[in-house]
Amino acid sequence: MGLPEHSLTTTLSQSIVDQLSDTVGNELAVEFYPEKPANYRLNHANGALLVNYGKSNYPKHNDTYAVVRPRTMMLTITIVSRGLYDRYGAVPLVDWVLAMLSGFTPTHCDQPLSPVRDYFIQHQSGLWYYGVDFETEAVLVQTLPINEF
């Protein structure tokens, strides 16, 4: 069994990037969270929305034959802005992200995105960083052959 061609998590994250990109047009950059955050550079004049998968939880479940479990997934939108309260400031962008994603159902998910929390991350080199965490639910289904008893 080799690596799969497709990743549920990557496809889900891409659908969130697409939803935000379709809504903001060219007013903000919308990207995946950088693989090397220390080297990230904001190139857009107004700001950026960075989409990142954070974690999943799998509640205890009594599987009787195959493993089929709910997968509660956490994703973070990191807001990077040059201002705090102006039109493209981090604080109004928190509200905007909440409005644009709350209730949106990403690809391969059974539940719409639901906000969990928003928070200040840091102010560094003239940029404001805020986070907005969302959760959604998908289903994990066993792909290995089922062992017969």
Automatic annotation (TrEMBL):
InterPro entries, A to Z: Gp37-like, Gp37/STM4215, Phage_tail_protein-like_sf
Specify one Pfam family: Gp37
* Matching Gene3D superfamilies: Phage tail protein-like
Where are the coiled-coil regions? Answer: none
What this protein is called in its record is Phage protein
Q: Which organism is it from?
A: Psychrobacter aquaticus CMS 56
